[in-house]
Design a protein that fits this description.
Layout (H helix, E strand, L loop, with lengths): L1 E2 L8 E2 L7 H9 L40 H7 L8 H6 L7 H9 L2 E5 L9 E6 L6 E2 L1 H14 L4 E3 L5 E6 L1 H13 L25 H16 L6 H6 L11 H8 L26 E4 L13 E7 L5 E8 L18 E7 L3 H15 L10 H8 L1 H12 L19 E4 L5 E5 L5 E2 L1 H13 L4 E3 L5 E6 L4 H10 L10 H5 L1 E2 L17 H15 L9 E4 L13 E7 L2 E6 L10 E8 L3 H15 L6 H8 L1 H10 L18 H13 L4 H17 L5
Parallel strand pairs: 8-9, 17-18, 18-19
Antiparallel strand pairs: 1-2, 3-4, 4-7, 5-15, 6-7, 6-14, 9-10, 10-11, 12-13, 13-16, 15-16, 19-20, 20-21
Helix pairs in contact: 5-6, 5-13, 7-9, 7-10, 10-12, 11-12, 13-14, 16-17, 20-21
Siroheme binds next to strand 4.
Cofactor: siroheme; [4Fe-4S] cluster
GO molecular function: 4 iron, 4 sulfur cluster binding; DNA binding; heme binding; metal ion binding; sulfite reductase (ferredoxin) activity; sulfite reductase activity
Keywords: 4Fe-4S, Chloroplast, DNA-binding, Heme, Iron, Iron-sulfur, Metal-binding, Oxidoreductase, Plastid, Thioether bond, Transit peptide
């Protein structure tokens, strides 16, 4: 029996998932919990519209005893995410109880412990911000930078969904940190929890109409789906009103109930007491720009313009998602599939209709299967579409034909389109610390720059004047933030999740392990003769949840035991196909035994321009396995030129310093520069 601590002792969850309506009714009549009042106006497909105002696991059978997961009960009894979080935050204990731990996620925080430490658990909190399109105003960047030093572990983490994470915040400092973020143009509301997460959009601050429109749409969707009850401000800034001006079209779309989407008179008109069955993810982009990994989102939205570049509407994909559980084959990563096209003025209504379809029908009995991808897989896209259409009140038009997708990194210097420049910086695994953190702060503060976070854990400095370019390039390069042409192409597209020591779900290393993995992969590529400028998209996660989207990588390493990984192959450089699991339980020290034969054969047997991902898919796993099994370790490639490099002392010392910042020797750094030079000349590029 699990006791829901903090509440009256009568609140008992009998097992993880058996919650009975009769018990719930008792609580309601005792007035202990505030519930929103009204029923949905026009029930569409819900079989349980009789349960006043409550969404109950609606694709599971509507019996008296509907099974719901424990978290559903926590949400229901929380007075819209307040209770018992508020109480738990005020007591002297270093941590918070189980219910509050679930609720605080909706406020943008996770309780964690340092898994490297033995003995008594020392609780700490990770905070995640919400930054639609990755936009970070200058003031917020500086504040985050300070907070990381004063209250965190001294680093900032850029995430795969264009947000910041601060790790290591103690409970006693949570309110100070949260309120500081809120008062400095930031928010963490809804960064985690069963609701809409940060909305992705291309981070490039282009002023072109299509990009600006995609970003405005992402902002509006984020506003539409922000929790409304005020609990966040009650808890973190003592109910202070934080003025946020919403566009009238967002307010109108949220309040519209002409198709039975809303809980009328509820503090949460879209979410109700139960919020969504699970996390929910949306990305918006423009044709060709797949910087957002569009197909991995619950909803992927693509701006469609006329021949003059004037946005007219949107193509919509649904049902993407990465998370899975080892050895449970009924859980799987899945790509979004086309739902249809809608005119531009309908987008907020359509998004709401999709969210409500998932709210009403997504499973609430077993959180492993609660993501919308499982609902769509079970129903099929036709049924899903027809239910969404009822909430939308119109039919979808046919999905418009799209050009091929490309991965865009936005690294290096680019024109914004308004006379200013932006500078995309590669940040290994999004971890900003040490000299790099100091230099970034100096530049961002001095030139009053706003920044953007990319979905690849990188950073863009915006609104840079041409006259500042040289100075900024130099200051950042001295701190190890090099122009992309000086960064190993493997690093540019690689990603790893945080994993150990703070992620409670990590099975093995990811962020801490990837620097060495990439060096070893580079050594293997060198050995088999693959040229330096040819790259492979590598993504590493410490468990199968897929936070660095490893199932879209050409080479995905997914932790499946201490120092061991599954190897996933078959993603493409433009992130449009799903990889498959090639091998299980490969020990990290045995990586070369698998990679050497694969890269050797790719080098020798590929068609011109064929990426590693395309090659592995074409060859098939049986033959790849044979290559690995028969590999004798003998690489027959022409010998390399033995190049000697001479430099004067001053140059050598400068290179040595720079090399140390990149964990290389001066010789390796020099080789990288030469390789890059040769590669770009082979490609006919200007230096
Ligand atoms: Fe994630 C849980 C980190 C993007 C799928 N993710 C976690 C937690 C919070 C662990 C936990 O539940 O206690 C990790 C915190 C680690 C730490 O100490 O920082 C965590 N996820 C991250 C970040 C920081 C990884 C990164 O390297 O940047 C990303 C933060 C995104 C953000 O700013 O909102 C992050 N997580 C993702 C993505 C990628 C994406 O959204 O594009 C995915 C796969 C896409 C998807 O959702 O399907 C992802 N995270 C998960 C899952 C599996 C969800 C599922 O459907 O099964 C979990 C576990 C869960 O939810 O139960 C999870
Ligand atoms: Fe943690 Fe797993 Fe996500 Fe990595 S993939 S951050 S180990 S939940």
């Amino acid at each position: 029996m699990a006791l829901v601590a903090g509440a009256s002792k009568t609140v008992v969850a009998e097992t993880e998932s058996k919650i009975y309506m009769s018990k719930y009714r008792g609580l309601r009549s005792s007035g202990m919990i505030t519930l929103m009042g009204a029923a949905r106006a026009l029930p569409v497909s819900s079989p349980c519209s009789s349960s006043v105002g409550i969404v109950r696991a609606v694709s599971t059978p509507d019996t008296v005893a509907v099974k719901r997961s424990k978290v559903e009960l926590f949400k229901e009894q929380s007075n819209f995410l307040r209770f018992p979080l508020n109480e738990e935050l005020q007591n002297e204990a270093p941590g918070i109880n189980e219910v509050a731990t679930q609720l605080i996620k909706f406020h943008g925080s996770y309780q964690q412990t340092n898994r490297d430490e033995r003995g008594t658990k020392s609780y700490q909190f990770m905070l995640r911000t919400k930054n639609p399109c990755g936009k970070v105003p200058n003031k917020l960047y500086l504040v985050m930078d300070d907070l990381a030093d004063e209250f965190g572990i001294g680093t900032l983490r850029l995430t795969t969904r264009q947000t910041f994470q601060l790790h290591g915040i103690l409970k006693k400092n949570l309110k100070t940190v949260m309120s500081t973020i809120i008062k400095n143009m930031g928010s963490t509301l809804g960064a985690c929890g069963d609701l809409n997460r940060n909305v992705l959009a291309p981070a490039a601050p282009y002023t072109m109409k299509e990009y600006a429109f995609a970003q405005e749409t992402a902002d509006n969707i984020a506003s539409l789906l922000t929790p409304q009850s005020g609990a966040y401000y009650d808890i973190w800034v003592d109910g202070e009103k934080v003025v946020s001006v919403e566009p009238p079209e967002v307010v109108a779309a949220r309040n519209d109930n002409s198709h039975g989407t809303n809980f009328q008179d509820s503090p949460e008109p879209i979410y109700g007491t139960q919020f969504l069955p699970r996390k929910f993810k949306i990305a918006v982009t423009v044709p060709t720009d797949n910087s957002v990994d569009i197909l991995t989102n619950d909803v992927g939205i693509v701006v469609i313009s006329d021949s003059d570049g004037e946005p007219q509407g949107f193509n919509i994909y649904v049902g993407g998602g990465m998370g899975r559980t080892h050895r449970v084959e009924t859980t799987f990563p899945r790509l979004g599939e086309p739902l249809g096209y809608v005119p531009k003025e309908d987008i907020l209504y359509v998004v709401k209709a999709i969210v409500v379809t998932q709210r009403e029908n997504g499973r609430r009995d077993d959180r492993k299967y609660s993501r919308m991808k499982y609902l769509i897989s079970e129903w099929g896209i036709e049924k899903f579409r027809s239910v969404v259409e009822q909430y939308y009140g119109r039919k979808f038009e046919p999905f418009r034909v799209l050009p091929d997708w490309e991965f865009k990194s936005y690294l290096g210097w680019h024109e914004q389109g308004d006379g200013a420049l932006f500078y995309g910086l590669h940040v290994d695994n999004g971890r900003i610390g040490g000299a790099m953190k100091k230099a970034l702060r100096e530049v961002i503060e001095k030139y009053n720059l706003s920044v953007r976070i990319t979905p690849n854990q990188n950073l863009i400095l915006c609104d840079v004047r041409h006259s500042w370019r040289r100075r900024i390039t130099t200051v950042l390069a001295q701190a190890g933030l090099l122009q992309p042409k000086y960064v190993d192409p493997l690093n540019i597209t690689a990603m790893a999740c945080p994993a150990l020591p703070l992620c409670p779900l990590a099975i093995t290393e990811a962020e801490r392990g990837i620097p060495d993995i990439l060096k070893r992969v580079r050594a293997v590529l060198d050995k088999v003769g693959v040229r330096y400028n040819e790259s492979v998209v590598i993504r590493v996660t410490g468990c199968p949840n897929g936070c660095a989207r490893p199932y879209m990588a050409e080479l995905g390493l997914v932790g499946d035991g201490p120092n061991s990984y599954q190897i996933w192959l078959g993603g493409t450089p433009n992130q449009t196909s799903l990889a498959k699991c090639f091998m299980n339980k490969v020990k990290i020290q045995d990586l070369e035994k698998v990679l050497e034969p694969l890269f050797y054969n790719w080098k020798r047997k590929r068609l011109q321009g064929e990426s590693f991902g395309q090659f592995t898919t074409k060859i098939g796993f049986d033959r790849l396995q044979e290559m690995v099994d028969k590999w004798d370790g003998v690489v027959k490639v022409p010998p390399k030129h033995n190049l000697k490099i001479f430099a004067d002392r001053q140059t050598y010392e400068a290179m040595d310093e720079l090399a140390q910042l990149q964990s290389k020797t001066a010789h390796q750094l020099a080789m990288d520069v030469i390789r890059n030079y040769v590669a770009s000349h082979q490609n006919g590029k200007e230096e």
